[in-house]
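In this supplementary section we document a worked example of the pipeline. Step one takes a protein sequence of length 283 as its only input; no multiple sequence alignment statistics are reported here. Step two produces a three-dimensional model, which step three serialises into C-alpha cells for compact storage. The input and output of this example are shown verbatim.
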Amino acid sequence: MMSETRSSRKALKSRNLFIGVALTSIFALAALLSLIWTPYDVTQLDISSKLKSPSWEHLFGTDHFGRDTFSMVMVGAQTSISVAFIAVGIGMGLGVPLGLSAAAYRGGLLDEFIMRGNDLIFAFPSLLIAIMITAVFGPSAVNAIIAIGIFNIPVFARLSRGAALPLWTRDFILSARVAGKGSARISVEHILPNITNLLVVQGTIQFSLGILAEAGLSYVGLGVQPPIPSWGRMLAESQTLISIAPHLALFPGFAILLTVLGLNLAGDGLRDLLDPRIRRTRR
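The serialised model returned by step three reads:
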C-alpha cells in the first residue's frame, strides 16, 4: 500500500505524464464520440456552404465540398488512433516473442536469423513498404496498418532482445533452470514481466510515430481512402487552398501535433515513473 501511494504521488507530480495523458485523452474521447455522433455528416456534401470560415455554426469552418471540418477532425482522430493502435499491436505482438526467442538462444542460428531479418526490414522505411504493398493490393487502411505494423516488428524485437539478454545471467534465471523450466517458459514467466515497463514506454512512443506514419501515408494517397476522413489527407487536400482557407490545414495539423506531443510527453512521464534508475537518482 505504501509503495502504491508513493507511485500515485509521483504520477501526480509528473507534469509530462499529466499533460501527455490529458492531451491524448482529449483526442481519444473525440475518436470514441465520433463513433456515435458528430455535429454534421462527414459524407454529406453541401457546396453552398463551401470554404466557410470558423463560426459558431461550423467551429472549424468547412472544406471545399462544404463538409464540416470539426466533424472531419473528430472522425480523423478515430482513423489515426485506430490505425496506429492496431499497427503497434501487430509490431509488439510479433516483435516481442521474436526478441525473447533471440535472447533465449543468443549466439545461435535462431538469434542470427531473427536479427538479420530485422535488419532487412529496417532497410525499407514504412512508406516504401506501403508503396510495395499498395502496388499489389491497392491503397487502403488495412494495407497502411500492415505496412506500419511490419516496420514496428524489428523495433520491439531489438528492444526485447536487448533488455532480456542481461537477465539471462541473473541468479533467479539460473534457479529457474535448475527447477527444470525450459527457455520458453522462463521467457514468459520471468523475463517478460521484468521488461514490461520498457515495452509500455516504447509502445507509447511507437504509437505517436504510428500516427505520424498514418498521416504521411494518407497524405500521399496510400492510407485511408475517401470518403473516410483522415488528418493526412485533409492536409493534402488543403495545400492548394491554404492562401484562401488556411483553417483547412491549421486544424488537422494541430490535431496531429497535439496528439503526437501528448503521446511523447506521456511516454516521457511513464519512463520517469517506471525506470528504477531514474527513481533512485531523484531520491
